[in-house]
Inverse folding.
């Protein structure tokens, strides 16, 4: 059981480091789509990922178009605070691509519009919060996916 965690244009190295560590813990692969808001050798990225970074299965893409060109015919689901479906409704599958946007603005609007039936959200029950931290959101989704698959 493994997922593909995809970060479109991540901006915060500590989030990416934590998500890298999560990808290793969950048996998932990490896909990073440029441009990044940091250098890949940033010490904050490495510190958040601890000494696990060298064990992570990592793919780096030059652009969103590059990502799609290299991952045709894959099963994608997208996550956005603008999604209309609850993440618990996903029919999780092994090797599924879980796609998250950048911390400041999320996924590009055209991707949300073109994939509306595949865009999910994590419910937020307070009017005082716009979104969850990216690393927390990825953790919630990945482990719900693992739980869902194990329960079948």
């Amino acid at each position: 059981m493994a997922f593909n965690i995809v970060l479109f244009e991540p901006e915060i190295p500590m989030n990416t480091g934590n998500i890298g560590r999560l990808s290793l813990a969950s048996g998932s692969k990490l896909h990073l789509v440029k441009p990044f808001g940091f250098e890949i050798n940033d010490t904050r990225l490495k510190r958040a990922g601890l000494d696990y970074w060298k064990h992570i299965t990592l793919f780096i893409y030059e652009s969103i178009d590059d990502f799609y060109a290299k991952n045709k015919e894959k099963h994608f689901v997208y996550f956005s605070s603008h999604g209309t479906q609850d993440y618990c409704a996903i029919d999780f599958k092994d090797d599924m691509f879980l796609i998250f946007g950048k911390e400041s603005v999320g996924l590009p609007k055209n991707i949300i519009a073109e994939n509306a039936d595949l865009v999910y959200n994590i419910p937020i029950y307070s009017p005082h919060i716009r979104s969850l931290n990216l690393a927390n959101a990825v953790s919630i989704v990945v482990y719900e996916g693992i739980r869902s698959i194990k329960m079948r």
